[in-house]
Amino acid sequence: MELPAKNKWLLAALSAAAGFVNGFLGGGGGVIIVALLLAVVKLHQKYAQATALLVILPLTVVSAAVYVIKGNVDWLPTLWATLGVVAGGIVGALLLKKIKGNVAKIIFALVLIAGGIKMFF
Fold first, then answer.
1. First-to-last CA distance in the chain?
2. Domain extent listing, the chain
3. Apex CA 61: angle with CA 113 and CA 47, to 5°?
4. Rounded to two decimals, what is the model's pTM?
């Protein structure tokens, strides 16, 4: 897929904001990347979600390295959470492949809404 030059720069600039959010808050950059891929690149929902995971991977590695170097990681919860997210990630990726794009969009929106509500309580 070829992007117009204007969209490439827009995507890069807005992705920098997503990187900031992810590094500053410890997460959330992927949600921004999905929204950008949907709006700027016009990807289908499933492709946007899958692509966001690959985009966020190096960002997560860099952000995590900074946190580790600064000594801001509690390793025991990290171990158990890692086991859970790996298992959940495999199941989620397999499920995403099987569902329709609109279902993925609805699930994505519901998770965002639930997360937003949870932040208030």
1. 42
2. 5-120
3. 50
4. 0.70
Our CA angle for 8, 14, 20, nearest 5°, is 135
Gap between the Cα atoms of 2 and 7, Å rounded: 10
Give 64's contacts (C-beta < 8 A, 6+ positions apart): 73
Q: What are the two backbone dihedrals, phi and then psi, of residue 44, each rounded to the nearest 5 degrees?
A: -70, 155
Spatial distance between the Cα atoms of 2 and 23, rounded to a whole number of angstroms = 29
Q: What is the mean pLDDT of each run of 10 residues along the chain (121 residues)?
A: 79 86 80 89 89 86 91 95 94 89 87 86 82
- DSSP H helical ranges for 37-100: 45-69, 75-98
The one-letter amino acid code at 39 reads: A
- Cα–Cα distance, 109 to 15 (Å, whole number): 20
Residue type, 57: L
Tell me the two tokens of residue 106: 């609805």
